[in-house]
Amino acid sequence: MGSLAFVTDHIVMSNHRRPKIPFFAYYRPRRPILDTSKSWRVKAAGDSEDSDEALQAVIEKSKRLLAKQRDLLQQIAERRDIITSINNATINSETGEISSEEEEEDSFLERDSNLPDDIFTPDVPSTSSVEPLGYQLPDATSRRYDEGSSKSSINLPPKSYQNGDTANRPQSTPSKKATTHVLPPFVSEISPTYKNLEVKNESNIPYVTDVPIDDEVESPPLAGPNVMNVVLVAAECAPWSKTGGLGDVAGALPKALAKRGHRVMVVAPLYGNYAELQETGVRKWYKVTGQDMEVHYFQTYIDGVDFVFIANPIFQNLGSNIYGGNRQDILRRMVLFCKAAIEAPWHVPCGGSCYGDGNLVFIANDWHTALLPVYLKAYYHEHGLMEYARSVLVIHNIAHQGRGPLNDYSYVDLPPHYLDLFRMYDPVGGEHFNIFAAGLKTAYRIVTVSHGYAWELKTIEGGQGLHGVISDNDWKLKGIINGIDKKEWNPKVDTHLTSDGYTKYSLDTLQTGKPQCKAALQKELGLPIRPEVPLIGFIGRLDNQKGVDLIIEAVPWMVGQDVQLVMLGSGNSDLERMLREMENRYSDKVRGWVGFSVKMAHRITAGADILLMPSKFEPCGLNQLYAMCYGTIPVVHAVGGLKDTVQPFDPYNESGLGWTFERAETGQLIHALGNCLLTYREYKPSWEGIQKRGMMQDLSWDNAANQYEEVLVAAKYQW
Ligand SMILES: Nc1ncnc2c1ncn2[C@@H]1O[C@H](COP(=O)(O)OP(=O)(O)O[C@H]2O[C@H](CO)[C@@H](O)[C@H](O)[C@H]2O)[C@@H](O)[C@H]1O
């Protein structure tokens, strides 16, 4: 059966009953489809004259279409030339800077909208009408939060939902009426709003929108028949909430998946008043340790992704302390979050329609959301609900597992026979309750954030008590290296480099732009402005993981080398104190910036020559990736993702991206850093070669998104 017929069949089926396997791909049309196959008509056999004529007509029509396409491409090429020449000449009158690439991109797209309509009108089925089932809301006035935090009212974000992106959002038919449904909710038969559209291009002419607008924003290939509804659930999501790399991943990976054509939702707790959000009006009640708790769902749509936030007083004002509180507090938050997140695709209308549970995969992240795969099984699958929804659990850091005494089990609200999933034993913790273990056993697939870490997790040292569980589930484990959000971390467009003497730069302007950033950083930190002195940076959580102790031990050697050192971090109070002491002792050479500052993280990444990452373990590591994009050379402990991403410099072949050392020891760090400093001072061409190789890598999320897609598809077919 042709794939178009396959699609049509499934659309027809969707209007009747759910198929045995719900493989509808609810695809949002993101780009024009030039499906010339629709022009063909099948005629009766023997009607050869008519056939010839028809064939001739079709050939003529195709020729006309191809001519139009060629013409269009020509127009685009001409416009790009014009834009390039304008940009080369355009100087911002206020700042004296060249206008940003995002502006270029916008103006280009605007002009595109003036192109002939007929080329852009895809020959696709129209969207179907959608009538999501509603659920009878409990009488909000008759229920009250009891005790403590739950009595406080929810401080709603402003209703100023004015995101420019919404104009481009694929529109679905709004629900006309909401039929009521008494809890517990039954799976809703929500029609797919976005039909499964086949993407075909047999002409070898690139799709009109495939013509790269800019090198940085070239579209990745579409997922085609693999498109799915993807719901990524995380305790933090940049830019709204971030304590580390998980926030970055939750903010960026979904956009890359959406670019491939998936319908993607991110669900995170609402910790503060985020300006972009709109209240959906959806309110639900969930039980947590016997208490009914109401959540409100908020939503916004940015870069093709539906960001859904779950509001309840227990999340409020935790922005800077997401994982704060005692174990029971955290547990209650995560239980409520997972329960509310799992039903978001049922309840929250995004662009007019809910996702529903067909063709759905959840991506849970770390122990905080490791209950989600368990709830999916226990509350839904075992009751014939969300039968075809799947879960993938991503390990960003196995060091935090949601451990506690066995009687913590009473908090998670599961039937007694699930206890064994959580029960773990190890020589350090003895018999204990372990949320990550249960999630890993229950998820359909497991991802971790590098190949190296996937291997290390199965060792006693690397698995931190879960090596047995991970080895047993090796068949469903895959390592995928994180990417970079190139809108956020890119020296060409970095908004943190537009003031205070900093400047944006690219590979072409590296030799002038980066020294300017270095001078600006030295000035901002109050260090002597000396271009020839190597400036060494560290950015990260002050935590045993990050090997901060090794740097502190190496500082006396470093300050004897005529270098400058800046360390940005927060976390462990002892390490914070040591940073301050170091700065006091070596005030002409060392800065210890205690705190969490995204702006300073960007500025250090741009202004430093060298970035240190002596992590004891590092599942992937993002800062070394950011550093390489900014022409900053990483010196790293060869472990986990650091080993996978920083190929050691080889002076004989002039290859490699930085310096690595094999064991997390101060002497080894000093040895690697010594070689790095020698190259900086004595072998400038080699140094510049390393910088350029780092900057030229494609570290975008597109590649990772492609691999995630394989995992999502594998999960979908996993029973
Ligand atoms: N004081 C500060 N001020 C401003 N920004 C700060 C900061 N401290 C850290 N950051 C930022 O937080 C992020 C940290 O990312 P990492 O990947 O290095 O670490 P983390 O260990 O949190 O993440 C875990 O998850 C990620 C994602 O999978 C893995 O890469 C990693 O190995 C794993 O440990 C970076 O964006 C960094 O700039």
Automatic annotation (TrEMBL):
It comes from the Eukaryota. Residues 93-179 are annotated as: Disordered. Its EC number is 2.4.1.21. Signal peptide: none annotated. It catalyses: [(1->4)-alpha-D-glucosyl](n) + ADP-alpha-D-glucose = [(1->4)-alpha-D-glucosyl](n+1) + ADP + H(+). It holds the Pfam family Glyco_trans_1_4. GO terms for molecular function: alpha-1,4-glucan glucosyltransferase (ADP-glucose donor) activity; alpha-1,4-glucan glucosyltransferase (UDP-glucose donor) activity. Keywords: Amyloplast, Chloroplast, Glycosyltransferase, Plastid, Starch biosynthesis, Transferase, Transit peptide. Gene3D superfamilies: Glycogen Phosphorylase B. Residues 150-177 have a biased composition (Polar residues). It is an enzyme of class 2 (transferase). GO terms for biological process: amylopectin biosynthetic process; starch biosynthetic process. Pathway: Glycan biosynthesis; starch biosynthesis. Its main location: plastid. Residues 229-471 form the Starch synthase catalytic domain. GO terms for cellular component: amyloplast; chloroplast. It is found in: Plastid, Amyloplast; Plastid, Chloroplast. Belongs to the glycosyltransferase 1 family. Bacterial/plant glycogen synthase subfamily. This is starch synthase.
